[in-house]
Design goal:
This protein has 7 helices and 21 strands. The protein is of the alpha+beta class. 12% of the residues are buried.
């Protein structure tokens, strides 16, 4: 029992000493710890290391009137050697300060760049941050960059909208679908642009429409690298109106182009005319804009008695109905006095 008691007391003393180490002079101990960590980091970062970076590839000096036809890698994997501090800085350096430059000034249409020999022969094409002390070792990926150029092409193409509008019962579309802009500027390699006759929009379907439509549709970018659209969207507008009917009664049937020596009689001399059209348009139509006539030169057939009169209506009228549909025409040759 005595031995166990002593062992327990010794264990408690050890725990107290450990506890005291962490609870006394905390500030001084933290300072010592921070200084130690700083010295360790300083020592580590001043050692020399090798590290592989993904570095931005900056393509410059494409000849006027030319454009890249196929994509190049955005970044190159390359190995560098230097102090740990400099290498860490490179990890956070902006692309403007750390990049590989690929100069296409002498390239006309096609060239294969062996990157290792290119940058070994042109070390000035590797841009480093100021005051960095690192050494380029080797290209890791890719070994070669293939440059393909094409003629720069710019065209203005019409827009084909894919907007399907289904109106509700008793309604109709009035006028044409308006598109703004109705054409767009597109640029890119001649190989791709020369094949295009128009650009198209996304598809959209509207159902049971009862009011004017205004829809914003995205233009689908045509296939091909480096193809650029100067407008991404078009606005489509379509007017919608109620379908209306209006009857004009006792419209006289006009007789036209009767040659000399003939007289024409029409029975009945007037007809009723029912118009079907957008309600807003019908409200604006008056009798002076409606003409019903029979034309001798264009319609007369010897021996024929019944004819369907011709009708002239304002633009936008959808359909009409004559009552009666036919009239009887009697042509009489005038008697010549001796």
């Amino acid at each position: 029992m005595v031995v166990e008691k002593k062992e327990k007391e010794n264990k408690n003393k050890k725990l107290e000493r450990i506890k005291g180490f962490f609870t006394t002079d905390i500030g001084a101990k933290l300072i010592v710890l921070l200084i130690s960590v700083f010295l360790w980091i300083f020592t580590v970062l001043n050692n020399e290391y090798s590290y592989t970076f993904e570095v931005y590839l900056d393509v410059i000096n494409v000849k006027p009137g030319k454009i890249l036809k196929e994509p190049l890698p955005e970044r190159i994997k390359a190995k560098f050697t230097g102090r740990g501090l400099d290498l860490v800085y490179l990890l956070f350096a902006p692309a403007s300060q750390f990049r590989f430059v690929l100069d296409l000034q002498k390239i006309n249409w096609y060239y294969e760049f062996p990157l290792a020999s290119y940058y070994e022969s042109n070390p000035e094409k590797i841009v480093y941050p100021r005051k960095s002390n690192i050494v380029f070792n080797q290209i890791v990926w890719p070994d070669t960059v293939v440059v393909k150029l094409d003629r720069f092409e710019k065209r203005k193409l019409p827009v084909v909208p894919h907007l399907e509008i289904e109106v509700a019962s008793g309604y109709m579309k009035t006028g044409d679908l308006e598109i703004y802009p109705d054409s767009v500027i597109i640029t890119g390699p001649w190989t791709y642009i020369s094949k295009l006759k128009a650009v198209e929009t996304e598809f959209r379907k509207l159902e049971k429409v009862t009011e004017d439509v205004e829809e914003k549709l995205e233009i689908i970018k045509p296939p091909g690298y480096n193809v650029t659209l100067f407008d991404r969207y078009v606005i489509c507008r379509q007017k919608i109106d109620l379908i209306g009917e209006r009857v004009f009664e006792e419209i006289p049937v006009e007789i036209r182009n009767v040659p000399r020596g003939f007289e024409v009689y029409i029975d009945p001399p007037s007809v009723n005319l029912k118009l079907v059209s957008p309600l807003g348009l019908l409200k604006k139509v008056d009798e002076t804009q409606v003409q019903v006539y029979w034309d001798f030169y264009r319609q007369y057939v010897k021996g024929k008695k019944s004819y369907v009169p011709r009708v002239e209506l304002p633009e936008g009228i959808v359909s009409y109905e004559l009552v009666p549909q036919e009239v009887e025409v009697r042509v009489v040759r005038k008697s010549v006095k001796p």
